[in-house]
Description:
Blueprint: E1 6-11, H1 17-28, E2 31-34, H2 35-48, E3 52-53, E4 56-57, H3 59-64, E5 71-74, E6 77-80, E7 83-84, H4 92-102, H5 105-120, E8 124-128, H6 131-135, E9 141-146, H7 149-160, H8 169-185, E10 198-201, H9 207-222
Parallel strand pairs: 1-8, 1-9, 2-8, 9-10
Antiparallel strand pairs: 3-4, 5-6, 6-7
Helix pairs in contact: 1-9, 2-4, 2-5, 4-8, 7-8
Bound molecules: 2'-deoxycytidine-5'-monophosphate (DC).
Amino acid sequence: MKKSFIIAIDGASSTGKSTLAKALASSLNMVYVDSGAMYRGVTLYAQQQQWLTEAGLDKEKLISHLDDIHLTFTNNKLFLNGADVSSEIRSMAVSNAVSIVASISEIRAFLVAQQRIIGATQAVVMDGRDIGTVVFPDADLKLFLFADDQVRAQRRFNEIKEQDTEVTLNQIHQNIKQRDYLDSTRADSPLIQAPDAIALDATQFTAESMLNHVLELISKRFS
Ligand code: DC
């Protein structure tokens, strides 16, 4: 496998992108990068600084301080300026605000540049919304996962109900629908399927059968 081999996995939230991406990275000895975690990291930073509150976002402040935000991954955990924020970035407070932050072009440019650096020298599986369309338009393999929003809400609810006993299925469903809308209608890098991406209906697969299906695709295409 060449050094900068890239697998791009895009799709809406809770379609199983990260489960597939992690499993592929581990089967193929590649690095996994969760680009959504990076948008969540910037959102958390803005909240910590009080630039993003119920009253709104101080966009100019955040944009002028992007160089103060250092995001790194170690063992699939996200570190924000040296602190492990992997759990905090999954809170409802971050989930409800992240699409606003992700719609800002300066923030996208800041994170896309870092994503391209990560993919330049190593074999990477990256998941997100614009990986096959914007970040790596020449990716070796592009996958686009989709599934019904009710199914995705249930999936996400099952995942987090143990850690967050307050959250309801309905809140998660509303959050997913709102993010789908914001992520697919924003002007910069909306969530769309790249013309050369392979679309996979996540409801037709278990995690294991999805992995096997994609491994088969890879072995047919690259052997
Ligand atoms: O994958 P996720 O749900 O953790 O992503 C969080 C948010 O970040 C999502 O609502 C949209 C945004 N995002 C994006 O705009 N571009 C990406 N490549 C990844 C995520």
